[in-house]
């Protein structure tokens, strides 16, 4: 019961950062597509910070909640993909790479902004500096009386850094249909780009196998330590 209560408290703490991380990620795709000549997302009202047009019941709610309650050790989610008309882009291959990169770029900017906010809270309350060294998504058993506002606020900013770094790094894996795969398809010479693009119909299964089966231990030995290191760097070491 205590573990369930802690999971619910953690879910409540990360809900806002997660929703805006995936919302602005998708809005950034639409914004960049509009700049590159495709107004589809703008006409559909998808270039907005309002989460409602972007929320996917499975990717934004169910998957993160199940990962959290199962103690998977990491958190991931997604929003409804922003539609992009490839043919409307002025330079389709290169512009698609820009559109794909805009989502992770938005996550990086949000992580940096949340990191600055963390440092601002710690500057005002130096005794909370230890919180920035806690493991990802960890919550205190009880919040001391004098920190009922400042500590939850700091934890929300910290979660925002961690979530945005995870989303950025995960989406940059060079596997279509992830953003990194589409960036690679846009930048590689035509032959290798075409070969890589053929992976897209089954790419999601490749990604799931990489995460859950972790062949060769690459995810746990390289990827996740790298993600954690980057998050700690943004949080101030």
Can you lay out the helices and strands and say which pair or pack?
Elements: H1 2-35, H2 40-43, H3 57-69, H4 92-124, H5 150-171, H6 179-187, H7 190-197, H8 200-212, H9 218-234
Helix pairs in contact: 1-3, 1-4, 1-5, 4-5, 4-6, 5-9, 6-7
Key terms:
single chain, 237 residues, mainly alpha, 9 helices, 65% helix, 0% strand, globular
Would you kindly provide a written description of the structure presented here, covering whatever features stand out?
With 237 residues, the protein is an all-alpha fold. The chain has one domain (2-234). The chain is 65% helix and 0% strand. It has helices spanning 2-35, 40-43, 57-69, 92-124, 150-171, 179-187, 190-197, 200-212, 218-234. The mean pLDDT is 88.
The N- to C-terminal Cα distance equals 34 Å
Biggest beta sheet attributes: none
Beta fraction: under 5%
Instruction: Label the overall shape.
Output: globular
Percent of residues in helices = 55-70%
What is the total tally of β strands?
A: 0
What is the string of helix and strand elements? HHHHHHHHH
Quick gist of this model?
The chain is mostly helical and 237 residues long. Helix content is 65%, strand content 0%. Helix 1 (2-35) packs antiparallel against helix 3, helix 1 (2-35) packs across helix 5 (150-171) and helix 5 crosses helix 9.
């Amino acid at each position: 019961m205590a573990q369930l209560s802690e999971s619910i408290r953690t879910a409540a703490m990360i809900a806002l950062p997660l929703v805006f991380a995936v919302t602005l990620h998708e809005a950034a795709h639409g914004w960049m597509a509009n700049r590159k000549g495709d107004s589809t997302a703008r006409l559909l009202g998808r270039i907005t910070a309002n989460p409602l047009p972007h929320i996917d019941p499975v990717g934004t709610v169910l998957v993160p909640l199940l990962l959290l309650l199962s103690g998977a050790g990491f958190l991931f989610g997604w929003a409804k993909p922003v539609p992009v008309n490839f043919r409307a882009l002025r330079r389709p291959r290169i512009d698609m790479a820009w559109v794909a990169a805009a989502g992770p770029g938005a996550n990086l900017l949000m992580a940096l902004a949340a990191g600055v906010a963390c440092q601002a809270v710690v500057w005002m309350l130096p005794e909370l500096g230890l919180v920035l060294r806690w493991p990802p998504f960890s919550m205190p058993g009880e919040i001391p009386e004098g920190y009922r506002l400042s500590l939850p606020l700091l934890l929300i900013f910290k979660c925002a850094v961690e979530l945005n770094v995870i989303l950025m790094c995960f989406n940059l894996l060079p596997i279509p249909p992830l953003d990194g795969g589409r960036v690679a398809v846009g930048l590689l010479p035509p032959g290798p780009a075409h070969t890589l693009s053929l992976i897209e119909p089954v790419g999601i299964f490749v990604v799931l196998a990489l995460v859950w089966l972790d062949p060769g231990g690459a995810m746990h030995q390289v990827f996740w330590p790298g993600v954690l290191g980057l998050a700690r760097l943004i949080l101030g070491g």
